Fold these 3 entries.
Entry 1:
Amino acid sequence: MHVNKNVVRGLLAVTGLACAATTVSAQAVASNQVWEVRFVVDNAGPFAQGPNATAVGITMQARVALRANTATNGSTNLGISRVGGSPNTSGTGFLMTFADPLDSAANHGTIGRGETGEQFNGSGINDSTGAALAGHFAAYRGSYAPSGSGGSNTDTSNGTFATAANGNQTVTNVVGSRAFGNTNPGNLAPSAPGGALGAATLNGDGTLSGEFASIYRFIYTPRFQLGVTFPRDITVTAANMGVRYVFRDQGGGNFSAANAVVLPAQTFTFRVPGPGAAALVGLGGLIAGRRRRA
């Protein structure tokens, strides 16, 4: 069934997951971390989902709160360090899969990096090649080389896109971080109770309060096929998401991030066109072709 809401979220209490902590590091154990990750699907603008969509924008956002800590030195929540990860040696690491019922190995939609609408460091610089920032938002590009430039959108940590044997689109290597080379002014300024960029507080009813951090932007371009009689739903699964939060300022733009915690898988859907939009695309191409011949 189609999900009508433009925000799909999961409140993920990670009680029971392994995560080492010591009095030296002052990081919270996994059972004291409560994560909320959501995928905001565009419902307005040029990349809105729906029966006329030619491409759909999706923004991954997150926030984290810490439960009360009994350690004498406490735990500090400086916000989100990372959401995502890369495949591990057994091939079971972070993986997003976009499943379109029309996809095949030879004919399929595509997934890629969406523009964030930002400038790195607020200095008028986009990525290191001059292109508009896409994929990771500016605060999560500090580890990209060369340091302080925002790196290239094609950095190996800025998402790897592939096509599975059945035609479904996949994403791995979403490994941006705020923990290294963090020279982006303001991204540690308090923007939520208890910290910055995704730092939240835990309410008595188990919900979170505080601003979400925007982590990553995707653009999905569906396959068009004339003769299809319905708009269709794309089903997205985000599995083995590794998350870290920032808990200590080391100085010089470097911070300590807590050990990674792997969250349960999330699944959400969004809608793409049926034959009406495909026909419009074909008609537009035909009109353009006639104009060129005129």
Entry 2:
Amino acid sequence: MKRCGWFDFEATKEKFPIRVDSYSGTFEIDLGENYDNKTFIGKDVEKLRGEAYAYLRDVTAGQWKPFIIVEHDSSGIQSKHKIYFEYRRLFRLEKDDGTFLWKKWNGPDDSHEGSPGGSSFGPDRDDQYRNTRCLPYSKETWNGLLEITKAIETVDKKIKEMVDSGDLEAKLKRIAAGTTHALDYSPIVSAKRSR
């Protein structure tokens, strides 16, 4: 397809290429990754401009709200000693038809402030083994997830130390006999919570 012009969206001062397939006479307006790669295709270029305009008007007028997607995957774990736990911050826009657009969290990792970035994908709800929750963003919820990460890192460090130690077999036998706790792990309680 060859570019044959531009579609200008004045509200955001953006330009999008209009392409034409000279063999079929089909036009295309691709809004790119910032708009979920939405593409309008057809033989009537003015109709396509109208559709692209309506779509951009609705998307840019809507309110992008921050969310956290939390996923735990138990997919076909052959043995019960694996963990898949992921979480990420995104911005979500609910369109008039009830569907959603997602944008990446644009901001420093260590900050609670962010803005909508490039296009992203939302929660994977098609995988039967993946447990997914989509939560409204709050500092407290995000900090709770960060605490879980710290706990996982602490357990991982203890497992590494145990495997690297010279008495791994003896430790495992004591754990099996119930004379010692697995990994000697107890969650870290912050000073604020212990008061």
Entry 3:
Amino acid sequence: MCEDKLKPGSFYWVIPEFDVDFTPPGFEGREYDPSMFEAMRAHWTQQHQPARFERYDEAGNEVWLYIGVDKADPPWPVCWIGAEIVRD
């Protein structure tokens, strides 16, 4: 998607950038193993989800607001942007 088409205040389907430091529930204190990676990939934070495009910051980076997630500092970027979510 062309960045100049993102409209502040609009919602889009996105996939957040993969958080390599994320520990899925139930794996706290455990050493990394393949089952942990699969649990990380399956967690909702790694899936398609709606997010509100807030703005571009001073450096030109996208700032997104995710439903049910406090504002991240620095902003949590996306690795994929789908269609704008519009109401029929």
